[in-house]
Specification:
There is one protein chain. Helix content is 66%, strand content 10%. It has 242 residues and is α+β, with helices and mostly antiparallel strands. The chain has 2 domains: 71 residues, no CATH class; 167 residues, 3-Layer(aba) Sandwich (Glutaredoxin), CATH 3.40.30.10. α6 links the parallel β2 and β3. α1 packs across α3, α1 packs across α4 and α7 crosses α10. It is elongated.
Length: 242
């Protein structure tokens, strides 16, 4: 499987390369497209390092583009002011987490690691971007969490919702009740236009910066896809050094 994943971008590069070389070399038309393609194919088989070099160059170009995009969207990511956050506002490092309360990796790996990290590193701040992508239950949980944040009790609700294996209305209500939330006020906040706008904006931002699943972490101008907690911790350490 790993070999296949590595070969796919190389194959794509070959398919792109052949017509490009034909355009760059008009004389190739004299020998026929098929003959030229066979020569290109034979050359690349003899020199596969060309495709590897192309892949590396494309990855480096993509990485530079991704960093530039994150830098451009820094204010919306870290300083929107509407998203729940945990940690000091003047923290040395701020981390954004795009999450869904029905995401298996969020529940089993990301959330426990975030809770542990916040306890161990009080100079780190987490900004929680609610990104409900797994249906109406996810939306209901995200709305409830945002409502809890409006009452200053987000983190307890976050922990409860991430710990629940069955995310139904009863579980959401229990999480709010146990956190001491005013349920009537919470319902109004959950259903408000402001909450809907925040969720819509989070989804739009996720699309613009290339978030295609949860969990996704953003640390400075670096994005970590999935629950790669070791990579998140390395990125935090690097930001502290800077």
């Amino acid at each position: 499987m790993r070999i296949l994943k590595r070969l796919l971008p190389l194959l794509a590069a070959f398919l792109i390369l052949s017509p490009a070389l034909a355009v760059a070399n008009p004389a190739a038309k004299d020998t026929g497209d098929k003959a030229f393609e066979e020569k290109v194919h034979a050359y690349l088989l003899a020199h596969p390092e060309v495709l590897l070099a192309m892949q590396k160059a494309l990855e480096e170009k993509d990485a530079v583009s991704a960093r530039a995009t994150l830098q451009k969207q820094a204010a919306r990511l870290f300083d929107d002011g509407r998203d729940p956050s945990v940690g000091p506002k003047d923290a040395k490092v701020s981390v954004v987490l795009f999450q869904d309360y029905q995401c298996g990796h969020c529940k089993a790996e990301a959330a426990p690691a975030v809770i542990k990290l916040l306890a161990a590193q009080p100079d780190v701040r987490f900004v929680f971007k609610e990104l409900p992508i797994f249906g109406q239950r996810s939306v209901a949980a995200a709305r409830a969490a945002i409502a809890a944040a409006r009452q200053g009790k987000y983190f307890g609700v976050f922990k409860a919702l991430m710990a629940d294996t069955v995310l139904d209305d009863a579980a959401i209500k229990a999480a709010l009740t146990d956190a001491g939330i005013d349920l009537k006020r919470a319902q109004a906040d959950a259903e408000s236009k402001e909450t809907k706008a925040l969720l819509d904006d989070n989804a739009k931002l996720a699309g613009e910066i290339g978030v295609d699943g949860t969990p996704t972490f953003v640390i400075g101008d670096q994005m970590v896809l999935g629950a790669d907690i070791e990579e998140v911790e390395r990125a935090i350490a690097d930001r502290k050094k800077k």
